[in-house]
Amino acid sequence: GSRGIAVGFPVGLHLAFDAKACRLAELWRGDFVNASGSWAGRGGSTLGGQGESLWTPPSALFELPEHVEPEFLGYSLDAGGVPSFIYRLGALTVEDRMEPRIGSEPGLLRELTLSALPEGVVLHCAGNGAVLVDVQASGASLSPVAGQAGVYRLTATEAAAALAAPIVIRLELSL
């Protein structure tokens, strides 16, 4: 999209983040991007990954009880250059760190830090060809949604709610 952020990693797996919808848009393997359409002629061409698409994530990572427009707040890079995208969904502020992994099967390590956890939030962390290898939460309980692989209801623990402590969710996906 017009507000997409492409991130290249030296391991040859790359991702695109949609800053308008505040979501991971695509994960691919191979060449990074061909930006010539944006620079040649009148520009305006859509960029895309130049390799094999490995995963198109669900249209929304979080499902909230009422519709809210996402607000992109920016991003930061850690010492290794791995990005964390920061955005707001109503009262929920999310820091979303994503790092591809390689090995026998490509995958994605993802760490979500939530400012607070309103009631009724559902997490869509896999699907569309991605398999959830592991999910862990600090400050929240995860309850699988029946009949939906990789989908969980989130509930803040009493201690996290009382302390207004951030909630951290770690995901490992195999693609």
Give structural notes.
With 175 residues, the protein is mainly beta. The protein has one domain. Helices cover 6% and strands 50% of the residues. The chain contains two helices and 14 strands. A six-stranded antiparallel beta sheet has the order 6-7-8-9-14-11, with no helix packed on it. It has a four-stranded antiparallel beta sheet with strand order 1-2-3-4, with no helix packed on it. A hairpin with a 2-residue loop joins strand 7 and strand 8 (92-101). The chain is globular and about 45 Å long. The two termini are 23 Å apart. The mean pLDDT is 86.
Task: Report a brief summary of the structure.
This protein has 175 residues and is mainly β.
Describe the protein's topology.
Elements: E1 4-8, E2 13-18, E3 23-29, H1 36-39, E4 52-55, E5 62-63, E6 70-77, E7 83-89, E8 92-101, E9 107-114, E10 121-124, E11 131-138, E12 140-144, E13 151-156, H2 158-163, E14 167-174
Antiparallel strand pairs: 1-2, 2-3, 3-4, 5-10, 6-7, 7-8, 8-9, 9-14, 10-13, 11-14, 12-13
Largest sheet: 6 strands, antiparallel
Strand residue percentage: over 45%
Strand order of the largest sheet: 6-7-8-9-14-11
Helix content: under 10%
Shape: globular
Query: Unreliable segments (pLDDT under 50, ≥5 consecutive)?
Result: none
What is the helix tally?
Answer: 2
Number of separate structural domains = 1
